[in-house]
Amino acid sequence: MTSTPESPRPTDHDARSVQRTTAVFLLCHGLRWLPIGFAIPILVLVPTERGLDLPTVGLVFAAYGVTTALLELPTGGLADAVGRKPVLLVATVADTGLLLALAFGSSAWHFVAGAVVGGVGRALLTGPLESWYVDTVRALDPAIPLRPGLSSAGLVEGVALAAGALLSALLPTIGAGLPVDGVVSQLTLPVYGGLVAEVASFVAVLILLHEPARSSHSDLATEVRAVPTIVAGGLRLAVRTRDLRLLSAVFVISAVAMVGVEVLWQPRFAVLLGSTAQATQTFGYVVVGMSLGAAGGAWLADRLPGVLARRAAVAAASGTALAAAAMVGLAFATSFAAAAAAFIAVYAAAALGSVAEAEALHERVPSSRRATMVSAQSLAQQLGNVIASLGLTRVAAAQGIPFAWGVGATLLVVSSALLLFVRERAPAPADTGAPR
Predict the structure, then answer these.
(1) 4 lies in a domain?
(2) What mean pLDDT, rounded, does the chain reach?
(3) How far is CA 394 from CA 216, 260, 290, in A?
(4) Full residue range of the structural domain in which residue 391 is found
(5) 281 and 151 in one domain?
(6) Is 187:181 a contact under the CB 8 Å cutoff?
(7) Each residue's pLDDT tens digit, 307-355
(8) 91-112 as b/e, with b when 16 or more CB fall inside 10 Å?
C-alpha cells in the first residue's frame, strides 16, 4: 500500500520568512490606505472651493468609478501575468492622479483627468498586494491559516484611515496663517500629506517586496498578450465554481447595502444634529470612529471561537448578520449619539465579515488566477455601488433614509443566508500552467 507523501514541514527559517512577509504586507497595506485617509475629508471641499458645483463634482467621482470598474479585470489579469510588484509600483504612481488634481486643479477637466488617472491606480491596486502575501506565505507553509494575516490587514487599514483623517484635520490648524485655498493653503496641506504617504508607499514596495524571478524564456509582450486568457480563465472559474458564484452574489448584494450607508449617512446625521455647521465639525470624528470600529472588527475576526474560527463562510455569515442588526438600529435611531453608535457598529461587523469572506475566496482560487479573482470581487462590489447609487438613493428620496436602510438590512440578511450555503473549505483548484 502506497502512502500519500506529506507536505514538508516548515522550518524555523520558513517561520521567520512568514513573519517577515506578514510584516511587509501589513506595512505596505497601511501605507496604501494612509493617503485615502488624508483625502476623504477634503474630496468635496477642494473642488467646490474652486468653483465646481455638486453635479460636476459627482461627474468627477463618476469618472473615477467608471474607470476603476472598466479596468478591474484587465489589471488583475496583468498582475497575474507580469508579476505583482511591477503592477503595484505603477499603481502607486497612478494613484497620485486625484491628489495632484486636488493640489493643482483649477477646472472641471483637471479634476476629471486626475480622477481617471486615479481610477487606473485604484484598479491596479486591487488584488496584487494581497495576492502576493497569500502566495508567498503558502509557498513557505501550504497549511498556514490565512485569517490572521488578513485580519491584521483589516486592523491596519482602519488605523491608517483614522490616522490619515486625523492628520488631515490637524494640518489646516497648523497652517492657520495660510490662505484657505491655493497651491499652498490650508486645504492643500492634507493633499501634500497624502502625496508624502504615496512616496513612502512606493519606496516600501520597491525595497521590501520580493517576488521569485520570472522565467528567462518569457518577455513582457508575451505576458501582456496572455492577459485576456488569464481574465477569461478567471471568469470561467467564477462561473463554474458553485462557491465562487455564491461569493460573487454576496459581494454584489452586500455592496448595495453598505454603499447605501456610505451615501446616505451624512444627510441623515445632519438632520439629527440640526445644524449643518455643527455637522461639518463633527463628521471628521465620525469618520475616525468608523475607521477604528472597522479596525476592531477586523481584529476580532481572528479571535473567534469554535466553528467560527474553523469555517470562514460561517464567520462571514455571522459578521454580515450582525451588520444587518446594526443597520436596523441605524434606521430606527432618533438621536445623533444612537445613530453614530449604530453606524460604527455596522462597519465593525462588516469588517469582521469582510475578513472571513476574503479568506473564503482565497481558499478557492489558484495562485495563477488570484489577483484576477480579487479584481472580480472588486468589480462585483463596483456593480453593487452602481445599483445602490441609482436605486437606494431613489428609495431614500421617496420613502426616507431610514426606510432605505431597512432595505439595506434586508439585503444583508440575504447575503448572510447565502454564505451559509458555501461549503466547508476545500483546496484551491490546481494551477494549469498559467503564464508567470
Answers:
(1) no
(2) 83
(3) 55, 11, 25
(4) 227-426
(5) no
(6) yes
(7) 888 888 999 999 999 999 999 999 999 999 999 999 999 999 999 999 9
(8) bbebbbbbbbbbbebeebebbb
